[in-house]
């Protein structure tokens, strides 16, 4: 009970405050302020965040579908390359006497180039997916921060009247004057 009365006695040092006072105890007011700001952010940002995440999810799914189509194209290319390989093998049987070593080199080059192409396409798909995920995360972070900041500014602007602003400035000037007298 003594702490409660001490806090009201402390408010008596603000002559411009009158019957209305501010609790200047930072340890008591910061958790309350933070909980209010977090509550407002969660209340207003929840729907926007879910919409943003849904949109990003759709974009990522579309990117994955596109990558799958690229993969299917690569598989078709592989099948064509395999068909070509079979053809080359048949020709190799026909011309084995004349140029077996040259045909084998062509076969290996064809297989290696096909696997390199497939590997490059797979790497491109994975890089695209990773890039899109990072971009989506960055965009969501940026929008949530902007909306949170905008909401906080709107709340502050709606709560801060001219009279309250002037009284707060006067009180702070008085506190700085008292601090200056103490240091002098």
From TrEMBL:
- The gene name reads atpF
Q: Which superkingdom heads the taxonomic lineage of this protein's source?
A: Eukaryota
Note the InterPro entries from the entry. Answer: ATP_synth_b/b'su_bac/chlpt (IPR002146)
State the PANTHER family in the record.
ATP SYNTHASE SUBUNIT B, CHLOROPLASTIC
Q: What does this protein do?
A: F(1)F(0) ATP synthase produces ATP from ADP in the presence of a proton or sodium gradient. F-type ATPases consist of two structural domains, F(1) containing the extramembraneous catalytic core and F(0) containing the membrane proton channel, linked together by a central stalk and a peripheral stalk. During catalysis, ATP synthesis in the catalytic domain of F(1) is coupled via a rotary mechanism of the central stalk subunits to proton translocation. Component of the F(0) channel, it forms part of the peripheral stalk, linking F(1) to F(0).
**Topological relation to the membrane, as annotated:** Single-pass membrane protein
List residues traversing the bilayer: 32-49
Q: Name one GO molecular function term.
A: proton-transporting ATP synthase activity, rotational mechanism
Question: Where does it localize?
Answer: Membrane; Plastid, Chloroplast thylakoid membrane
Into which family does the record put it? Answer: Belongs to the ATPase B chain family.
Q: Which UniProt keywords apply?
A: ATP synthesis, CF(0), Chloroplast, Coiled coil, Hydrogen ion transport, Ion transport, Membrane, Plastid, Thylakoid, Transmembrane, Transmembrane helix, Transport
Q: Name one GO cellular component term.
A: proton-transporting ATP synthase complex
Name of protein: ATP synthase subunit b, chloroplastic
Q: How does it assemble?
A: F-type ATPases have 2 components, F(1) - the catalytic core - and F(0) - the membrane proton channel. F(1) has five subunits: alpha(3), beta(3), gamma(1), delta(1), epsilon(1). F(0) has four main subunits: a(1), b(1), b'(1) and c(10-14). The alpha and beta chains form an alternating ring which encloses part of the gamma chain. F(1) is attached to F(0) by a central stalk formed by the gamma and epsilon chains, while a peripheral stalk is formed by the delta, b and b' chains.
List the Pfam families hit by this protein, alphabetically.
ATP-synt_B
User: Coiled-coil region(s) at which residues?
Assistant: 64-98
What else the UniProt entry mentions is: In plastids the F-type ATPase is also known as CF(1)CF(0).
Q: What is the lineage of its organism?
A: Eukaryota, Viridiplantae, Streptophyta, Embryophyta, Tracheophyta
